[in-house]
Amino acid sequence: MSKLEEILTLVRSINEDEFQEQLTHGESLEDVYQELVFLAKKIESKKKRTAVIVEHISNCFTGDFFNYLPISEANDELDVFCMGFNTYIEELKAVMVSKKIVEAINEKLVEEKERSEQLALSRDQFLSNMSHEIRTPLNGILGFTDLLLNSTSLDPEESKQLGYIKMSGDILLVIINDILDLAKIESGQVTLSNKPFNLVQLTRLIHDTFSVKAIENDIDFKIVIDKKVPLVLNGDSVRISQIFFNLISNAVKFTPAQGKIRLKIKFQEEEDESYIIKIVVKDSGIGIPSDKLQGVFNPFVQVNNDASRKYGGTGLGLTIVKKIIDIMNGDIQVKSELGVGTSFTITLPFPKNDYYFSASKSFLEKESKGNAVIDVNKKVKVLVAEDNRINQILVQKILSKFNFDSVAVANGKLAVDAVIQEDFDVVLMDLMMPVMNGYEATSAIRSLKDHTKKNIPIIALSAVVTGSVTEACKAVGVDGYISKPFESEELYNVIMELVTKNN
Ligand code: ADP
Fold first, then answer.
1. Which of 89, 270, 330, 362 can bridge 325 by disulfide, Cβ–Cβ 3.0-4.6 Å?
2. Beta bridge partners of 270
3. What is the CATH number of domain 381-502?
């Protein structure tokens, strides 16, 4: 191969598309020279464009993001790169714009949130001020009216007139309380408590409160409580009473003489986390027209203005009831027929507690077989096995507060003897005791011959809360477990559930 041919082969092997196209493919020295000149120009132009691109991209890092890269007419791979880069800049710009919009919206939202928090705060402040400002003079009026009513120097006409002042003041207080309560609920200020309470007792209390008025009005008012309703439920007993209070006072208000009112508490079902209880308030009163039925839950709605004037009220009671039930995740339905009567049906979930080893299901199963009748007024007798004298006194004081009888012993051996000799409803067993500890005493009781004594509910009391302790308790046959220190309601709750379960 000649030198010229070698140079030609070398030049033509240069992998530059455009260059290859432009080659004259001649064989002379002149041809090769031309081809080399073209290649040199091409390389020079690319070098310059690459330098521009590099400079441009470096500027990006110093903040000059949004400059587009120049596109040449060469339409080569550098141009492809530049076009891609420009599209990327385009997209980046769009993202930046939407980011700015989102930031502006966020800023506005934060401002709005602060403003509404400020508003809510001043509204709360206003509510509590107003409540205080109105109630204080009203208390003065009512208090002094009471004092005057009790004084002996009044003639009958004066005491009658004072009685009217007192009655009007009482009504005013109810109205103010309702308005403030509703405002409080609506501003989301109401937090419900979740404490153990006795629904059966609460229902009886409501019955006692209204039976005087019912008898006065010649109304037959009875409560019916399903035996399956657990004695101890967790919830906000004050708000539950408020629901009862509003519904029963309406029933009493709108039921004429010789009518009937029934307050029924039913056990609907047991879910994993809660008991579902149904509450029905049914009366044989004046009824509500069907087209007005759903409106009764709206504020200030009174179905019949004449009746309302006659019976009084604000039209807020049912609104408050509905709102409380909503917060409790429950439901309320109303059915009514003019002249026949009205019934409100409430379904409420009551969260379970976790004090028991043996789930309350067994209690309910027993109940549904119908062999247990709960006597709420029965005095519960508790054996307290506890070696620490101070703790003995404390537990016994708490038990007497709940009107329970109790006997205290200082070790496990004495506890077993006491169970054999006397009849108890439940044993509170400390675990660490001299002579015989709580585990041994529980085992000894569980192996007694007498069926009732052998199965007596035993609740372990211990300051040591570990999985192995509760496991060991279960293994020897303890029914429930309370860790020290405990709340008195907690103790009451566990005792009542186990005692009723054992009936
Ligand atoms: P009020 O303070 O007027 O009783 P509520 O919100 O408790 O306010 O009740 C709204 C209206 O619903 C009452 O004014 C009455 O017209 C009607 N209502 C409520 N309960 C009964 C009922 N048991 N029997 C007939 N009407 C009722």
1. 330
2. 275
3. 3.40.50.2300
Structure tokens at 467: 């999985």
Q: Report the atom number in ligand 1 closest to the C-alpha of 255.
A: 24
Pick the CATH number of 194-367 from 3.30.565.10, 3.40.630.30, 3.30.365.10, 3.50.50.60: 3.30.565.10
- Compute, in angstroms, the gap from residue 314 CA to the centroid of ligand 1: 9
Q: What is the pLDDT of residue 359?
A: 32
Residue 62 tokens, joined: 């110093």
- pLDDT of the residue at 334: 96
CA-302 nearest atom, ligand 1:
14
Can you list the residues of the chain whose pLDDT is less than 50? Answer: 356-377
Which pLDDT does position 20 carry in this prediction? 59
Domains of the chain, residue spans: 3-60, 121-185, 194-367, 381-502
pLDDT digits (tens, 9 = 90+) for 126-166: 776 777 777 777 888 888 888 888 777 888 888 888 888 88
β-pairing, 195-198 vs 232-235, is antiparallel
Count of C-beta atoms within a 10 Å radius of residue 429:
27
Residue 284 CB neighbour total at 10 angstroms:
20
Pocket-forming residues, ligand 1, beta carbon under 6 Å? 246, 250-251, 254, 283, 285-288, 296, 301-304, 308, 313-319, 342
Spatial CA neighbour of 74 closest among 116, 103, 52, 42: 42
Tell me which residue has its CA closest to atom 8 in ligand 1.
315
CA of 302 to the centre of ligand 1 (A): 6
